[in-house]
TrEMBL record:
<keyword id="KW-0479">Metal-binding</keyword>
<keyword id="KW-0408">Iron</keyword>
<protein>
    <recommendedName>
        <fullName>Dioxygenase</fullName>
        <ecNumber>1.13.11.-</ecNumber>
    </recommendedName>
</protein>
<feature type="region of interest" description="Disordered">
    <location>
        <begin position="439"/>
        <end position="464"/>
    </location>
</feature>
<keyword id="KW-0223">Dioxygenase</keyword>
<keyword id="KW-0560">Oxidoreductase</keyword>
<dbReference type="InterPro" id="IPR004294">
    <property type="entry name" value="Carotenoid_Oase"/>
</dbReference>
<comment type="similarity">
    <text>Belongs to the carotenoid oxygenase family.</text>
</comment>
<dbReference type="Pfam" id="PF03055">
    <property type="entry name" value="RPE65"/>
</dbReference>
Length: 464
């Protein structure tokens, strides 16, 4: 029953898992791109119609690049109990943290690949995308984990949080690269909001407490709704000092995704993210659940917004950065929590655009540049890969999977991040449905080119 918008068009699930080797390439693949591009997304099994886009089982699509070749493509479901029908809430009302659809994101930390979905434990997978099982940080994570953890580029620590409709509503964690939790603490003052993303700076963690809060009357499978009587607040946790958390009330919007954040010399915090007002949020939600009157294509309606937060005074200055509705922001991961000017986004049909596009924003110069994948094509989240020896912030490549409805095919595009020209186009063996988030996982230098197509590469990951 494929009548839901998130199961049709660009988002039509694929029915099976395949493997292909030695993919053909148009253009020249930069030989320095040695590693795995992998992207997650919701792809329910044939015959399954989830009640919400985000309740569909997660499927990973990976492309292994080395030595100027695209060695293989694989797509694999994340094999969780939910894939076999296990419910998130057991009959006795308890939550099964392993019943994850694991379809939101995939990251690498300390050599471990984790498929993520925010209501559950992460699931570890191999570099060949085979599922190893739930990962609870050696028995120490007993709550869900956000799908948007942040790795500090200097310390290597993984920062993340758990949110819950029940007290404590928000818990903050830090994990070392060997997979041990080294910090775990409830964050006082948080509400029962749907907290999809957060930010770190060099010294702070920044939480987003939205007006979208737990509401059991919402029956789509994700029990959260916008409540007019709930303010939007941003919490700044002084994670290196002893100032605790400061909650700052801001304009009533929901920030689905963070672009980046950083500390300023005067103690303030700069935060950028995609902000939805109530109308934009409810329009998106309609598409996500296939409610009557939903738009034909997924929309964002979100405006990239900047907040200047003063945790001492408890105040915020807010300003929109751009007027084009976008989402799925990315930056150079080496600048996570540090000052950055350049970000990459997905723009959706409507709001001045006929088709999907990728957007590059440069807040230092005010430049906005668009990449149009072409009529009938959808370019998903663009992942930045730095160029070897690059110096400028945008000296690198963007990897994005383009779904082509007309050709019923997909390609992995490698764009030059500076001018958005196409460096290479990798022909994938099937149409890849539009998805959610992904990562570039570079190979260790010694491993470059050492993994023959189809052979396991166990050195790449340390499960357990
Ligand atoms: Fe997300």
């Amino acid at each position: 029953m494929l009548n839901k918008p998130y199961l049709t068009g660009h988002f039509t699930p694929v029915p099976d898992e395949i493997t292909a080797v030695d993919l053909s390439i148009s253009g020249k693949l930069p030989p320095e791109l040695s590693g795995l591009y992998v992207r997650n997304g919701h792809n329910p099994k044939p015959g399954i119609t989830p009640s919400h886009w985000f309740r569909g089982s997660g499927m990973l699509h990976g492309v292994r690049l080395a030595d100027g070749r695209a060695q293989w493509y694989r797509n694999r479901w994340v094999k969780t109990p939910a894939l076999d029908g296990a419910p998130l809430v057991r009959q006795d009302g308890s939550i099964d943290l392993t019943a994850s659809v694991a379809g939101t994101h995939i990251i690498e930390h300390g050599g471990r690949l984790l498929a993520l979905q925010e209501a559950n434990l992460p699931f570890a997978v191999t570099p060949e995308l085979e599922t190893l099982g739930p990962f609870d940080f050696h028995g120490k994570l007993t709550t869900a984990m956000t799908a948007h953890p942040k790795q500090d580029p200097e310390t290597g620590l993984l920062h993340f949080f758990s949110y819950s409709p029940f007290e404590p509503h928000l818990t903050y964690f830090e994990a070392s690269p060997d997979g041990h939790i080294v910090r775990s603490e409830p964050v006082p003052g948080a509400g029962p909001g749907l907290m999809h993303d957060f930010a770190i700076t060099a010294g702070k963690a920044v939480f987003l407490d939205p007006p979208v809060v737990f509401d059991p009357a919402e029956t789509s499978g994700i029990p959260y709704r916008w409540h007019d009587d709930r303010p939007a607040r941003i919490g700044v946790l002084d994670r290196l000092g002893d100032s605790g958390v400061t909650w700052i009330e801001v304009d009533q919007k929901t920030v689905l995704h963070v672009v980046n954040a950083c500390d300023l010399p005067d103690g303030k915090v700069l935060l950028e993210g995609t902000a939805y007002d109530q109308a934009a949020w409810e329009t998106s939600w309609k598409w996500w659940i296939g409610a009557p009157g939903h738009p034909n294509a997924p929309t964002s309606g979100a405006v990239v917004t900047r907040w200047l937060l003063d945790p001492v005074a408890g105040t915020a200055l807010e300003e929109p950065i751009d007027d084009l509705a976008t989402d799925f922001p990315t930056v150079d991961d080496r600048l996570t929590g540090r000052r950055s000017s350049i970000s990459y986004h997905v723009a959706f049909p409507g709001a001045g655009l006929d088709e999907f596009a990728l957007v590059k924003l440069n807040t230092a110069t005010g430049e906005r540049r668009l990449f149009h994948p072409g009529r009938g094509r959808y370019a998903g989240e663009a992942v930045f890969v730095p160029a070897l020896g690059g110096t400028a912030e945008d000296d690198g490549y963007l990897l994005t999977i383009v779904s082509d409805l007309v050709a019923d095919a997909s390609r992995l595009l490698v764009l030059n991040a500076q001018d958005l020209s196409t460096s290479a186009s990798i022909h994938l063996p099937r149409r890849v449905p539009g998805g959610i988030h992904g990562s570039w996982i570079p190979s260790p230098p010694m491993a470059a080119g050492s993994n023959p197509a189809g052979a396991p590469d166990e050195a790449f990951v340390q499960p357990g």
